[in-house]
């Protein structure tokens, strides 16, 4: 699934909401994690990070 596909469906199968965050989600794309915010009121998806999965992947 390319990142661009998130503009059409920001919550595809396999997406998970990050704990303690209001609008931040993550999805696995091969060995990478894409962390992004969804702003439904503005129809906007903001990619915050694309990184290999590690202990620091989800830290801000």
Structure description:
There is one protein chain. The chain has strands at residues 16-17, 24-29, 32-39, 44-52. The protein is mainly beta and 60 residues long. The protein has one domain: YaeB-like fold (2-Layer Sandwich). It is globular and about 30 Å long.
Whole-number radius of gyration? 11 Å
What order do the SSEs take from the amino end to the carboxyl end, as H and E?
EEEE
Q: Name the structural class.
A: mainly beta
| Average pLDDT for all residues | 89
In percent, how helical is the residue content?
under 10%
* Order of neighbouring strands in the sheet with most strands: 1-2-3-4
CATH topology name, in short, is: YaeB-like fold
Identify the CATH class: Alpha Beta
CATH H-level superfamily: RelE-like
Note the main attributes of this structure.
single chain; 60 residues; mainly beta; YaeB-like fold; 4-stranded antiparallel beta sheet; 0% helix; globular
Strand and helix layout:
Layout: E1 16-17, E2 24-29, E3 32-39, E4 44-52
Antiparallel strand pairs: 1-2, 2-3, 3-4
In short:
With 60 residues, the protein is mainly beta. Helices cover 0% and strands 42% of the residues.
């Amino acid at each position: 699934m390319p990142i661009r596909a998130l503009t059409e469906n920001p919550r595809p199968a396999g997406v998970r909401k990050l704990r303690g965050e209001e609008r931040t989600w993550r999805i696995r794309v091969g060995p990478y994690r894409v962390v992004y915010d969804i702003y439904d009121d503005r129809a906007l998806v903001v990619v915050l990070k694309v990184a290999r999965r590690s202990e620091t992947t989800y830290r801000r």
